[in-house]
Structures are given as structure tokens and as C-alpha cells.
Amino acid sequence: TQTYANGVSGNTVVGYCQLAGTYRGFVYDSGMYTTNFTYPGAIDTHFWSVSGSNIAGYTSIGSFIYNGTTYTNFTVPGSYRTTALGIAASGVVGFYTTNSSDQQHGFLYSGGTTTRLDYPAALLTQAYGLENNFVVGNYLDTTLFRFHGFVHDGSAFTPLNVPGASETYAYAIS
Q1: DSSP codes, 56-114
Q2: Which are the contacts of 22, defined by CB distance < 8 A and separation ≥ 6?
Q3: What pLDDT digit, counting tens, does each position of 52-90 carry?
Q4: Spatial distance between the Cα atoms of 27 and 43, rounded to a whole number of angstroms
Q5: pTM, whole model, 2 decimals?
Q6: Which helix (H) or strand (E) holds 139?
Q7: Which helix (H) or strand (E) holds 27?
Q8: What gap in Å lies between CA 32 and CA 21, rounded to an integer?
Q9: Residue 130 and residue 167: Cα distance in Å, rounded?
């Protein structure tokens, strides 16, 4: 049995655990565990990020926002995998898709609308953490094929490269 704690907001921690051979979402809140969350029709359910009462996660059939009672599913046409990894207090979700050629593109989801967010000239982009108008994530460069973190402020990208490191990853922002 494996357990992964991925997101925290206040006293709430979310993640996923392996139970009876499948992955189920869990919530740990103020000393109490609630486990066995399963997205309807999915084999595995991964809770990844939490903000207030909203949880962002993904399954084999798409990504979702879970508000404690209802799952709101979203996918991107033409992708075979949608992986939600961050949610802001405003409800905006950061995620990436994978298409049939294994290309990954970053996206934001808000109120039923998806917006593509690709780092310029990158081989792939992954959107992870969100806070207000800021998004952090990772991109793969086309020269050395290495990962670099980035911050997007709503209009421009700023690369994150720790001096002396061959790769830098960005997963969360607060």
C-alpha cells in the first residue's frame, strides 16, 4: 500500500493512496482521514491539489475539480490524457495534456474554458502550481533536452534556472 500527500490548504491535505490494487483520493482535515474517493467510472483517482474546499485531480478518463460533493470533469479534445496538478483560490486549474504523439501542452481551466499555456519554443510544457495570476511549471528545452522551471505572470514567462544546476523544476507557488 502506498500513500502520496500532494497538496495542502490550511489544515487540509489531499493526495491518493493504493487500496485493493487501485488508487483512491484521500482528504486529511484537522486530524481526520476520509479515503476511498473514486471518480465515477474511473479505475484510479488521484487528488493532487487543494484550495479551500476545491480539489483538483485526475483519472485515466480526464481531470476534475471536486468541491466536496460534485465532480466537474474537463478534458481537451485531441488529447488522450489530461493531468490536473494545481488549483488557485479563484478555482483556476493548471494542468497539462498529452496527445497521441506524447507531446505535452500546458493549459489553464476556468469556468468551462481552457486556455493553452506553452513556454515559447519548448518541446513540452507542464502547468503545476497557481496563486492569483501566477502559474509555475516546467518546460523541456530544445537544445540540451533538459527541464527548466518557469513562472508565468498572466502575460509573460520568466525562466527559473538555479545557477549551476543542470535542471530546475517548479511545482508550487504561494
Answers
A1: EEEETTEEEEE-SS-EEEE--TTEEEEEEEEE-TTS-EEEEEEETT--EEEEEEETTEE
A2: 38, 43, 44
A3: 999 999 998 899 999 999 999 988 888 989 999 999 999
A4: 18
A5: 0.90
A6: strand 134-140
A7: strand 22-29
A8: 23
A9: 21
